[in-house]
Amino acid sequence: MYKVCKFGGSSLANAEQIRKVCDIMLSDPSRRVMVVSAPGKRTREDTKVTDLLIALANARISGYDGAAELQDVLDRFGSIAAELELDAAIMADISLDMNTRLCQDCSNSLRFMDSIKAAGEDNCARLVAGYLKSIGRTASYVDPRVAGMFLTEEYGNAQVLPEAYPLLARLRQNPGISVFPGFFGYSKSGQVVTFSRGGSDITGSILAAATEAQTYENWTDVDSVYSVNPALISNPHPIMEITYDEMRELAYAGFTVLHEEALLPAYRKGIPVNIRNTNNPTARGTMIVRNRVNFDGVVTGIAGAKGFCSLNMSKYLMNREVGFALKVLQILADEQISFEHMPSGIDSLSIIMRKDYFTPDKEKIITGRLVAELGIEKVSVNRNLAIVIIVGEAMARTVGVTARAANALSKAGVNLEIINQGSSEISVMFGVREEYCNYAVKELYKEFFQR
Ligand code: ASP
Description:
The chain is an alpha/beta fold. The protein contains 15 helices and 17 strands. The strands form four sheets. It has an eight-stranded mixed sheet with strand order 3-4-2-1-7-11-12-10, with helices on both faces. Strands 14-13-15-17-16 form a five-stranded antiparallel sheet. The chain has a two-stranded antiparallel sheet with strand order 5-6.
């Protein structure tokens, strides 16, 4: 058995947490790769190391010396090293590493920012490997450049390059525990590049796929994934098993347990992802798998997300114009806008997009072109749209789920602006006004989980 384990920032926030995660690694000899985030918040008011590093990089980019910001970073690492009773040489290494990074040219601010941000994970991995060695265990810090974590040169939003996989597979030959810093890798030209925020989840998934691990364990601070956002419903139903597809749908509408891009590498290789709680390691957590065997209800999860808008258009005899939708989508593509859903009627079509992308400026250009180039007769934009989705593989085999959901929402007085069901039939999406979003989620939860 070979397992890759990723530990999030809250699992590494201080020495006590680091001891816990090392105990978790050591309690199962098949846990061979340990992907670490940067230390996270110790208390609600605390600041994550990554945010301290961003403040430091911004100070330097703006022409300040950033001495206070650098001290904050060194103090965080210093207090962890002291509590773990590590050799002073480790802090000297970390301090040297920080100074080397800061000596780099910051005229390319994105490149500089990524190099500084990556210091959180990189130095955390050095500390954790140092601690494991100090207690007599076989462990090593892995340098992502040497290991072959090659990424596209897209600062702050990198993607893994296919040639990284066979190189990373060599990790299996390392003895003991390999401590691998999450969140960043190197471009082919040797620059440090990071994934988007929360990207250590992606590192873990890539390493699980590359090493063909039996399981990718993602250790965080919740016992499981829940059927609904626990901020909306107290003691929500825990999900023991969920498919990649279901998880993807729920993540899309706001489930934030895993980074949105993190499932893909594991999904391609069919590696189960196990969400676990560092603070309650005996809980089995949630298994994310290709095919489910356990179904304890027709709906697996319910999610809602604000921040959407719809572009609605109609034209008499639209259905007879070959290639009409293609032309609409081409206009969106010309403006670099990706769309989310496209419900249609006989002579009408709506495009659902994220409001962040469909800015008022883009709206002006696009609606102008729709009228001028495609002869659209009526065009309107609704900027007050949230989407609420119910997700469940079992829905495809069950008659009446949409009716039950629509009925529950209508009884609750929620007007449905849009209804959309994909061909996979594992989710149904409702478009509602933003102010109804949380209320609609709660009503649907009552209908499917509390009756
Ligand atoms: N430390 C990075 C962040 O805060 C990456 C991660 O934790 O996954 O975004």
